[in-house]
Design goal:
Helix 12 links the parallel strand 7 and strand 8. The strands form three sheets. The chain has an eight-stranded mixed β-sheet, with helices on both faces. A two-stranded antiparallel ribbon has the order 1-2. The chain starts with about 25 loop residues before the first helix and ends in a 5-residue tail after the last helix. The protein is built from 17 helices and twelve strands. By secondary structure, the chain is of the alpha/beta class. It is elongated.
Length: about 500
């Protein structure tokens, strides 16, 4: 009868353990045995010395040997046989991995690993190219002049000795004082009619829409979106499995009559009435009332994205669409990314009173509660007037920067990119002559360190009108003219990519 090979003293002679080394002795022994196995000095099926014998040979405690053996056993390098000791495994983990790789590579028969779902593929297809934070990236606020000292003081105050409720969890709708502060602020600044209980703290417009789709929409429901419009909403809608209905935008905002024709029984309309993105138009009162009439007739909802309404340079900011809603159909969404800084990742949604319980339940089921880290500080930042003061300062700053952009464009881009002043917002739309490839021009601009997204990238169904989107809010005054000069070079060169 063939005898099982035994790992004798010669196989283990190379093991040397150093008590002065930083690595524990059992880890040193584990690595030494593993190396001997992988190099073939301890061959498959070879029996290892008993833990007592090996401990005596090495001059260590038996527990040290047992700990090394347990690790090797857990990783599949050795196997134990009841009443017969420990043996080197016949199939090592590396062998199994190599065999699997060989099968996948085509040397054997196997099915390829599963890929994403059809919904995942659709969702991934909605993601556009990354916009870099430089001139003229749209949506980027002025960061250098944010009152970070005041913000740091508020954070420190609330987190130097935080109450246990901050550490354990939170309300699914958000920190109660912040919700109250937001309700008061929105009522005064935007004529939003709401109680604190209707306010939900979210990470931004996309999470707000995601929550709304979970509560209000079923797969296959039709949803109106502005065309052109904010591309970030498309991924959320694709994930919800709804039917997207692109509706055109004219000088008065979303064309409700067109929506009635192509999607009369839609379940929701997503709009930015105060300052449409990206065209910058303001929805007229007549069009707002027409939209609310349609929602009533279709038994539908309206999601109002009020992303940068604080920045209006002629008169007071316009009242929100939500303030005109008498039927509980408008969900109002805003964000702190534009008025503070994008990395904060805090926004808010105001839901109709009769939907509060449903939104609370779904939020609790899918997200538990928003992070409590910045919410207490933000509540005080709003309550003590710091937010309003910062908005006033940046409003004046952005108005000046828009003027500088228009003046620079007139000097360097006249006749090639047509810019008109806007009474609101943080960006301008530069119109191009029909037939100009705005995507190619945007790529050339990137070669000159200018971020000017192509307008055609914001259209989902209608024929695009060529143009470039120029965000000016986050561009320092001294940099605006230099950036326009670099953009002018993009018109002249012939770089393809």
């Amino acid at each position: 009868m063939a005898r099982t090979p035994r790992a004798g003293p010669l196989h283990l002679a190379s093991i040397a353990l150093d008590p002065e080394a930083g690595e524990p002795l059992h880890r040193q022994l584990y690595f030494a045995l593993r190396e001997a196995i992988l190099e073939g000095r301890l061959r498959p099926a070879a029996r290892l010395p008993s833990s007592r014998a090996l401990a005596a040979d090495l001059g260590v405690s038996r527990n040290t040997v047992l700990a090394a053996f347990e690790q090797l056993l857990a990783e599949g390098y050795i196997e134990g046989r009841v009443g017969a000791g420990s043996y080197v495994s016949q199939l090592l983990p590396e062998d199994a991995l190599n065999a699997r790789a060989a099968v996948v590579a085509g040397t054997g028969v196997s099915r390829p690993p599963p890929g994403p779902s059809r919904r995942g593929v659709r969702l991934a297809a909605t993601v556009g190219s990354t916009i870099r934070p430089r001139a003229f990236a749209p949506g980027l606020p002025e960061l250098a002049q944010f009152p970070f000292e005041e913000w740091a003081r508020l954070l420190q105050r609330h987190w130097r000795a935080p109450p246990s409720r901050f550490l354990i969890g939170g309300d699914p709708a958000g920190h109660a004082p912040l919700r109250a502060a937001l309700a008061a602020h929105l009522g005064a600044a935007r004529a939003v009619r709401c109680a604190p209980e209707q306010v939900f703290v979210v990470s931004g417009a996309q999470q707000a829409l995601d929550l709304a789709t979970r509560v209000l929409l079923d797969p296959g429901d039709a949803v109106w979106v502005e065309d052109p419009g904010y591309p970030g909403l498309l991924g959320v809608l694709a994930a919800a499995g709804v039917t997207i209905v692109p509706v055109g935008v004219d000088g008065e905002g979303l064309m409700v009559a067109e929506g009635r024709t192509i999607g009369r029984r839609a379940r929701m309309a997503c709009v930015s009435p105060s300052h449409q993105f990206p065209l910058g138009v303001t929805m007229s009162l007549a069009r707002r009332l027409e939209l609310l009439d349609w929602a009533r007739e279709a038994d539908a909802f309206v999601l109002e994205d009020d992303y940068d309404s604080e920045y209006r340079y002629a008169g007071r900011p316009l009242a929100a669409l939500q303030g005109l809603d008498a039927d509980g159909r408008v969900l109002y969404v805003g964000t702190m990314s534009k008025v503070m800084f994008p990395g904060l990742r805090l926004g808010y949604m105001v839901v109709p009173p009769h939907l509060v319980d449903a939104f609370l339940a779904v939020r609790r089921a899918t997200d538990t509660h928003p992070s409590t880290l910045a919410q207490p500080a933000l509540a005080e930042f709003i309550e003590d007037g710091s937010l309003s003061a910062h908005i006033r300062r940046t409003r004046a700053l952005y108005a000046r920067r828009q003027e500088l952009l228009l003046e620079s464009a007139a000097r360097h881009l006249d006749g090639r990119l047509h810019l008109a002043p806007s009474a609101a917002g943080m960006h301008l739309v530069g119109r191009l002559a029909e037939g100009v490839d705005d995507r190619a021009l945007a790529r050339r601009a990137r070669h000159h360190e200018v971020e000017a997204p192509a307008m055609s990238g914001y259209y989902h169904g209608h024929a695009p009108s060529p143009g470039l989107l120029l965000g000016y809010a986050g561009v320092p005054d001294r940099e605006i003219e230099r950036a326009v000069e670099r953009l002018a070079k993009a018109f002249a060169d012939r770089i393809v990519d």
